[in-house]
Write a structure and sequence with these properties.
288 residues, single chain, 6 helices, alpha/beta, 9-stranded mixed beta sheet
């Protein structure tokens, strides 16, 4: 009986390992779409950095819709199709299209997310698709509130490029578990006009040098200004409570290439698509 027990035990262990490996293999790659282009940033480089960094970390296939238009009026052909997001599990919005103000065009983008397609929004996506008196707090449900409600936070501008001290204020969220605070290179700290459902994950603290009036040096007695803002957060959008993650970080290429930044974005992709457990552990087969 003992002689029989050992081979049976070994067989059972082997089967368990086999089925565990098979389960991991069975997890389909995450289908990610990066939409990148528009004003003020090196999107040609950054979309490549994001694609490489995500595919290095996750079991994912990343497609890119890149528009080399460097104006604030950059539009994307993919958004013109009614079912533009049907082939993807999650969308990364990395566009800078502040002066694209066609409600029908923007509404078609939002419809996919309202219907349940998750999103990760980066940097200037927060300053896109805005019109009307957007520098004042928008009213929920107003014609010019749609994009801000999707993001979950209204931002209208930023200060100078200076290092930002990043503090993860919610260290228990699945996205932030295990991530350490850090200080960026020179980056832009976006303001927070109002929260529209955002649940903050990280704040940024920046010391901004004194400045004078336009074209004038700062007065000798001028003092530096300390600025603070939420720089990463989550939101639930629409009737399906679609998961949305946003971060205002990511102006410069060196920030986008930073492993800490790519770890944050990768974990956000897993969370928005339900591939990250409440304890911060990725589901089997989600990682490389």
């Amino acid at each position: 009986m003992k002689k029989l027990f050992a081979p049976v035990l070994l067989l059972g262990v082997a089967c368990a390992v086999f089925f565990a490996q098979a389960a991991e293999t069975a997890v389909k790659p995450l289908r990610v779409l990066i939409v990148a282009g528009g004003c003020c940033h090196d999107y040609e480089t950054q979309q490549a950095l994001l694609k490489e960094g995500i595919e290095k970390r996750l079991n994912a296939k990343v497609d890119v819709a890149y528009n080399p238009d460097k104006t604030t009026k950059a539009v994307f052909e993919i958004y013109k199709a009614k079912d533009w997001a049907k082939d993807f599990d999650v969308i990364i919005h990395d566009e800078c299209s502040a002066d694209v103000t066609d409600p029908a065009y923007v509404g078609n983008i939002l419809a996919a997310h309202r219907d349940g397609v998750p999103a990760v929004n980066l940097h200037c996506a927060m300053h896109s698709y805005r019109w009307g008196n957007f520098r004042e707090p928008v009213q929920k449900g107003a014609d010019n509130a749609g994009w801000f409600e999707f993001i979950g936070l209204q931002s209208t501008g930023h200060g100078p490029q200076e290092p930002i001290d990043i503090t993860f204020t919610d260290k228990t969220h699945p996205i932030t578990r295990g991530l350490g605070d850090w200080t960026t290179i020179k980056e832009e700290l976006y303001n927070n006009v109002q929260m529209l459902g955002a649940k903050p994950l990280a704040s940024g603290h920046q010391i901004q040098p004194p400045k004078g009036k336009k074209g004038q040096p700062a007065p000798a007695d001028a003092k530096a200004v300390e600025a603070e803002a939420v720089v990463a957060w989550t939101n639930e959008y629409g009737p399906n409570k679609t998961r949305v993650f946003s971060t205002t970080l990511g102006h410069n290429n060196d920030t986008v290439a930073d492993g800490r930044y790519l770890d944050l974005i990768s974990r956000a992709l897993l969370w928005t698509t339900g591939r990250l457990g409440e304890d911060g552990t990725p589901v089997a087969g989600a990682m490389k």
